[in-house]
Amino acid sequence: MSNSPPADGSQGRPFDSAQGRGLLFIVSAPSGTGKTTLVERLVQLVPNLHMSRSYTSRTARTGEQDGVDYNFISRSRFEEMVREGGFLEWADVFDNYYGTCAADCERFLHQVVEQRAAIGIRIELAEGLTGDGGDAGAERAQ
Prior knowledge:
Guanylate Kinase phosphate binding domain; 21% helix
């Protein structure tokens, strides 16, 4: 293992110089496995790493703030965004929608080029919700 900087001049930063934009990392695991904890810790440790904010059709829980914890939107607006292809991924989990907005990620990836930043997306997969090995809360990727 070498201690010298990468040949692409990135100094180990998450950046794709060939594409002229930041990199997108996806952290995917079942609900409750610590994705948010992991990504929040990585954001603290890795310079210029940022976490995306998901959209959801559910109502905010006590202490949650729109635009901070999630982007809270109506179910009908969420469904409209799905029809328009507005999500990189989305899921119906316990009758609430959750998704990652494609335009938000694209805009962020282009804005952070000078910072050589990366963005992490938290995707929740519902496992075993049907009890028969099926996946009632299956993730849908666009």
